[in-house]
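A quick aside before the break. I want you to see a complete sequence-to-structure record at least once, exactly as it would be stored in a machine-readable document. Don't worry about memorizing anything.
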Amino acid sequence: DKPPREESALSPPRRGPMAGTRLDWADLDKGKLYTYMPLFGLAVRVPVYPNQLIKTRMQAGALPELTLTRAFAHVVREEGFLSLYRGFGVSLLGLAVGPVYITGLETSKSALRALNGQHGLVSNDSIIIPMASGAIGSFIG
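That is the input. The structure line, written in tokens, reads:
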């Protein structure tokens, strides 16, 4: 176990037992991350998906001009309750993107920080490393 790293000037101040430390990619339990991230993503998508479906249908003009609650009632009455989850399986493919994005973001951030530490390219408080790693993570994920 290595000691936690010091906070940079750009990090928000922490309170509690982790005050004065910064967690890095190497400090995380990847098994828990890759297990819980999709599970919590699923837990959020299940209740939100029907609202997204109705909103999309309303925007596409596939429903008569109704209020949101009347549109829900119309879809359930005409197509059944399970139709609120039509296309849900395909949307679940997006759960795999989160861990890929986080891995790309954090791996590139660690690599850029190490490279910067060796060559002193930018100051430690520079926003360049987070921006570059965000771009790399977005490209990968």
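Two observations worth writing down. The helical segments are 30-60, 68-79, 88-91, 97-119, 128-140. The beta strands are 5-6, 21-22. We'll return to this after the break.
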